[in-house]
Each structure stands twice: as C-alpha cells, then as structure tokens.
Amino acid sequence: MKFLPDIEFALKTDSEDPLRSCRNKFFIPKNRRGEDLVYFAGNSLGLQPEAVRSYVEQELKDWETMGVEGHMHAKNPWLPYHEYLSGQTARLTGSHPEEVVNMNSLTVNLHLMMVSFYRPTPARHKILIESNAFPSDHYAVQSQIKFHGYDPADSLIEMKPREGEFTIRIEDIESLIEKDGDSIALIMFAGVNYYTGQAFSFERITKAGHAKGCIVGFDLAHAAGNLELKLHEWNIDFAVWCSYKYLNGGPGAIAGAFVHQRHLLDMTIPKFWGWWGQDKATRFLMHHNFQPIPTIESWQLSNPPILQLAALRASLDIFDETGMDALRKKSIGLTGYLEFLINQKSDDNIEIITPADHAQRGCQLSIRAKTGGKELHNRLNSNGVICDWREPDVIRAAPVPLYNTFTDVWKFVEVMFG
Asked: Are 258 and 237 in contact (CB under 8 A)?
C-alpha cells in the first residue's frame, strides 16, 4: 500500500476498507460532544461488542426462569457451555479443538501449565524468559523456581537486547539456547512483548528449544486476536492468554490455554486435579477416582463463569465471521500508515522502538519520547485520543483492525504533533 500524508487518503482508504462494517459491531467511546474518541488502547482493554448485552442477557434470563435447571435446559445449556467456544478458539489460534480451553485467568493458567511442564532436575532447572517480560510472568516463573527449591538468581535466565537496542534479535535467542539449552528446563516467552511490541518467532524459538530438549511455552496476552497463530503446526508445548485485550472479552475476562495434542494422553505429566477435569461420563457419579478427560479440559479445575463465556463468545463470533487473514492484512496497513505519518514529521524527540518488519510486530507501535513523554501522553488523552503509557518513556498505540480506521491513525498523529 502506498501511503499519502493527507486526510483525503485516510478517508478514501476507509471508504474502500472491506472490513469497515466491523466497526459498527462495537461501542466506540465518545467525548462530551458525542464524537467518537480515537481509541488506541485495545492492547489493554478491547472495546465492547454490541452483541455482548444480548448474549449475557440470554443467560441471565435463563437463570431467572430456570435456576439450576439452566445447566441442562437453558437455550445454551451451561454444563457444556465452554465447548461452544472451542471451535472458534481453535480456529483463532491455529489449534485443534481438543487442544484449547477457556478457563481461569492468565496467570492462574500459567501456573497450572508450569505445574505440568516445568519439572526441574539438578542438571536441567533453568527457565529462559525475556528480560522485560510483563511483571506477572516474572513473578510466576520466580515463584515456581522457588517452589521447587531453586534460587531464581541461579535458575532464571533473562534474555536481553544488545547494548543500545530495544528489541531482541532472534539469532541471539537461538545462540543462547544452543549454548545453555542443556541446563534449560523451560523456555517461556511472550508472543508479543507488552513494552516494545516486538512479536517473537514462535516457530524458530520452539525449534531451537526442542533441539536441546527444552519445553517451550508462550504467553499470548498480546498475540491472541492480534497475530495469525499456528500453535499446533509450530509444535509449541503450551500457551496461555488473557481475553480482555484484542479478544474483547471484557474487563477481567476468562482466559485461555493450549496444550499440544501429543501431551494430552500422557498420564505421566503431573497436573492439579479438579471437578471439571473429571471424565464427563462419570463426573456426577461422585466417586473419588479421578479419570481425566482426554483433552486439555482435564486441566480444568472448576465449572466456568457462564456470563464471562457469553461475553467472550459474542466477540469470537465476530472473529470467526471476519477471519484473522483479513484482520492481519488491515492491521499491517494501519500500523504501516501510523509509522509512515510519524516518520513524515521527523521529530528528533520521537522514535518508534517496535520493529519496522511487519513480521515482528502486531497492532501495537511503541513510541518512545526522549523528553516530555508523560506530558505528551496527557495531551493526547486530553484531546480525545485514548492510548496508554508505560514507564519509563513509552506511549503504546494500538490501532485495532476490528474497530479502528485509517482516519483514526491520521487524527492520532495530528494531535501528537499538533
């Protein structure tokens, strides 16, 4: 796509956008004058699909009129409700339906996965993670290391960028794995780094890790609903994600997890047992002999929150209808246009630290202000642009293809440099 720096280009591109009707399926926040805000914070909290209310109200109505009978006789019976989302979630993540489940919250799922897949030995007890991963990932891996009686000072390897760089080169990751892989039990990277917006090479990291006998997992909090994923094909061992960012499941939405098919019937893998992981045919016989469901569902602990599943289902219906191929194509255009307009301004105080290579980024561009960044962020928010700030000096802007436009991008840059 050849970009032009004027509003006419943005308006024309929006008028020709094959996905332009998707925006009408979301509530767009407005200012006091009733005008749409420029909402570039879908990487923190996605907007509400208009269908959410009807999806949730259906379950409220069935609860109101049926009580406990809703588990079997609601319009969408609650007992198998999570299964209604399995096919959609599988298509979104490039998985098989038996490999994915929506349950719990992200960090809970990460801990459950590490119970199963972080099994340190005296010779192989280290975890490799990117140095500036989201804090909760650091907390989780450090606590797991300590739980097993090891010291994070010895067992946690933090992959850092080269001096003077913001992002991590894939060849450096591969080199470190080749060098230290025999002592690494688990490689646990983000799919997309929350701060820089860098998308990591799932396939190359997984291949390098498996070549050295490491388990490889990913936190997809900033990748699910953002990138085209092929979790099964890439041979990843496990993955976890939240659903309130690009997946628009609502604040505190139910999260998701993936376990590769080859692990599902391995009874030697340790896991915590719970009511909802028990074989469905015998669950209500109430015996105490745990018989795991032969899918990722065996990692479930409790029956899921139906209202949260209903809200997420409303969003997944839109993803299913639209397709990640089309969304990714538009996303590349939106971030490309944002990058083009910022570079046109040639402001020495502003630099984009997200990789320029489209294959190494998703919806988000991380914009570093060398001075006055917090003031710039406040000015954006005060002028109808919603984006977020991450210490010490980054404004994160995420034009989401489901509901953002090229005109939004143009307005963002006009306010930023106005």
From this structure: no
- Please tell me the total number of residues recorded for the chain in this structure: 418
Please tell me the number of Cα atoms within 13 Å of 17 on its side-chain side. Answer: 27
User: How many Å apart are CA 354 and CA 347, to the nearest integer?
Assistant: 17
| pLDDT score, position 14 | 98
State the helix-helix crossing angle for 306-322 and 52-66, rounded to 10 degrees: 140
Quote the pTM value: 0.97
The span from the CA of 208 to the CA of 23, in Å, is 40
Q: pLDDT tens digits, residue range 261-291?
A: 999 999 999 999 999 999 999 999 999 999 9
Cα separation of 164 and 213, whole Å?
32
Domains, the chain, ordered by start:
7-36+324-417 (3.90.1150.10), 58-320 (3.40.640.10)
Q: What is the pLDDT of residues 108-125, one digit of tens each?
A: 999 999 999 999 999 999
DSSP for 81-100, please give it: GGGGGHHHHHHHHT--GGGE
Handedness of CA 203, 209, 210, 211 (dihedral sign): positive
340-360: per-residue pLDDT in tens?
A: 999 998 788 999 999 999 999
Q: Angle at which helices 7-15 and 406-417 pack, to 10 degrees?
A: 160
Rounded to whole angstroms, the Cα distance separating 401 from 50 reads 16
**Ranges of the chain whose pLDDT falls below 50:** none
Sign of the CA dihedral running 99, 104, 107, 112? negative
